[in-house]
Amino acid sequence: MRPVKSIMDKTRKTKARPDRSSPLFVRSVEKALSFVFAFDGNNRKLLLSQIAQIAQTDLSTAQRFTFSLEQLGILRKDPETRLYEIGPQLLNLGYRYLHGNELIERATPVMLQLSKTTETNISLMVREDIDTIYIGRFQSRNFINPEIMVGARLPLFATAGGLALLAQLNQDEVDEVFARSTFEKITSFTEIDPAKIRERLELVRERGYAVAHQETSIGDISVAAAIVDGDRSPIAALSISASAMTISIADAERQFAPLVMAAASSLSNRR
Known about the structure:
- The protein is α+β, with helices and mostly antiparallel strands.
- It folds into 2 domains: 4-89, Winged helix-like DNA-binding domain superfamily/Winged helix DNA-binding domain (Arc Repressor Mutant, subunit A); 101-267, GAF domain (Beta-Lactamase, 2-Layer Sandwich), CATH 3.30.450.
- Helices cover 44% and strands 18% of the residues.
- It has a 6-stranded antiparallel sheet with strand order 5-4-3-8-7-6, with helices on both faces. Strands 1-2 form a two-stranded antiparallel sheet.
- β1 and β2 (84-86) form a beta hairpin.
């Protein structure tokens, strides 16, 4: 299996584009976050000079910001090696999001039931700009996939959940996502031809669900459906993932598509 740090590194810098022209935009907040985003699976511990280089700033500025972030518990510094790493306080912020999110609260019992019924991995993900971020996950003991965990970020075009979300967008929105996406293979199975991905989106719209076969993780088959609001705009996606060694694509679609579509529908806001 491909290490999760390799997957994460492909989308690490793809964050939503802020409106810096607004008078309400505080650039110092963006600057502070740039030091936090310097860390990822490939950069778990960094020297001050490395942080400054990644954040594209001078050493003096980097020193002031890293000191402040260290005092707040966001970063931690080893006094002997002088290496910085992410501090536990950042995990507290993630905890507040996970336990304060209404969708996660509503989806958790649905996901738990799906996990028990299918004995597979169940995931909840949302769109963040051109990527999907996993915000909920029930892992089956029958199919352990350590590559995907809560917080994992992957391209929309490469996951079943991402395809389900993309299929709910209008053509202009899809064009905008594609224009800023970097179509790189994550595994040898990843479809990176925009024209073929568009064909897949048409099929998703017709059937109501998306399928991905080993496109982010070798051995993974996923079937997903979008959760929508009252205007049919996508707010999240729900996916069922099983091992390609235990089930065929056809059987996965036959067994899981009705279940995941029904579950996603139950979580959607209907008018």
